[in-house]
Write a structure and sequence with these properties.
It comes from Zizania palustris (Northern wild rice). It holds the Pfam family peroxidase. Its cofactor is heme b; Ca(2+). Its EC number is 1.11.1.7. Helices cover about 45% and strands about 0% of the residues. By secondary structure, it is an all-alpha fold. Strands 1-2 form a two-stranded antiparallel ribbon. It has 14 helices and two strands, in the order H-H-H-H-H-H-H-H-E-H-H-E-H-H-H-H. The N and C termini lie far apart (about 50 Å). It has two domains: about 150 residues, Peroxidase, domain 1; about 140 residues, Orthogonal Bundle (Peroxidase, domain 2). Helix 2 crosses helix 5.
Length: about 325
């Protein structure tokens, strides 16, 4: 049964990827050069000024962009508010409740609107801001061709179904990525964003306290447990209070874009089950071990390549969608 399922998933991924080629081809570098030549400079200047002062914003913007692209593609649907008649939006789904950066994107969009009303999409602002934020803290930069249009639909139920869960196994995660036209290696490289991330104690409590069967997927792909000494330290310090404390996923260098996260995963110190799941797959484990033994520039290159691919997932272009004037609501026509 495994082989036919793999064939089916591969076929689905091929169909989705082929369908996206036309839209991707309409994105291009310098899309706004004639209609709003200052657009990318406005985004970049604001990001560098504010992320330079508060570097934790970089992780927030990167995660916001990631969540956006996994539901209906990179169309800024994550930024839409819920409406009374239209149901709950993506941002109100449990996986998105801890997202930050909405106000930041609103402020950048406001500046761009002042310069060029109704021209630059929220989707492009978010894609550019995520890239510039990572570069501002010393991480890699990647090419962001522009020309995305904004979506007009945002569904909490779709977010629940399509956002990768921190409790998923490697095959489950790889299947979700394949459905977006992304390879298993993209999953491995994009997980490297956790080098600047945080996780709340509640999201890995089963790994801290060893609840029997907690989060078990029952298919033999359960990840290895947390390193015992590390788990004990977290129980005694970070996760001992009644509140849901945040823990750095790359302790010691969580504001530096480096290989620390992958080193932690190999030492069984990846906080989430999905982090630990990376080393349950032989090819993924070999890729991580090879990366850790390579110059950091190699990580920057593969991460940038996968981010460029992610930022073009199921984009809307041409006459699709709209250019929202306010990122939180659709235009009234």
């Amino acid at each position: 049964m495994a082989a036919p399922m793999a064939v089916i998933r591969a076929g689905v991924a091929f169909i989705l990827a082929a369908g996206a080629i036309g839209a991707r081809s309409q994105l291009r570098m310098g899309y706004y050069d004639e209609v709003c030549p200052a657009a990318e400079r406005i985004v970049g200047d604001y990001v560098r000024q504010h992320v330079g002062r508060v570097p934790t914003v970089a992780a927030a913007l990167l995660r916001l962009h990631y969540h956006d692209c996994f539901v209906r593609g990179c169309d800024a649907s994550i930024l839409l508010n819920s409406t009374g008649g239209g149901g709950a939006a993506e941002k109100d789904a449990p996986p998105s409740m801890t997202l930050r950066g909405f106000d930041f994107i609103d402020r950048v969009k406001g500046l761009v609107e002042e310069a060029c009303p109704g021209v630059v999409s929220c989707a492009d602002v978010l894609a550019l801001a995520a890239r510039d934020a990572v570069a501002t803290i010393g991480g890699p930069a990647w090419r962001v061709p522009t020309g995305r249009r904004d979506g007009t639909v945002s569904s909490m139920q779709e977010a629940l179904a399509e956002i990768p869960s921190p409790t998923m196994s490697f095959p489950e995660l790889a299947a979700l990525f394949a459905a977006k036209g992304l390879a298993a290696r993209d999953l491995v490289w994009l997980s490297g964003a956790h080098t600047i991330g945080i996780a709340h104690c509640s999201s890995f409590a089963d790994r801290l306290y060893g609840n029997a069967g907690a989060g078990s997927n029952g298919n033999g792909t359960d990840p290895p447990p947390l390193d015992a000494a590390y788990a004990a330290n977290l129980r005694e310090r970070k996760c001992r209070t009644a509140g849901d404390a945040a823990v750095e996923m790359d302790p010691g260098s969580h504001l530096t874009f480096d290989l620390g996260y992958y080193r932690a995963v190999l030492k069984h110190r990846g906080l989430l089950r999905s982090d630990a799941a990376l080393i349950t797959d032989a090819a993924a484990r070999a890729d991580i071990a090879g990366l850790v033994g390579s110059p950091q520039e190699v990580f920057f290159q593969v991460f940038a390549r996968s981010m460029a691919r992610l930022s073009m997932v199921q984009v809307k272009t041409g006459s699709e969608g709209e250019i929202r004037r306010n990122c939180a609501v659709v235009n009234s026509h």
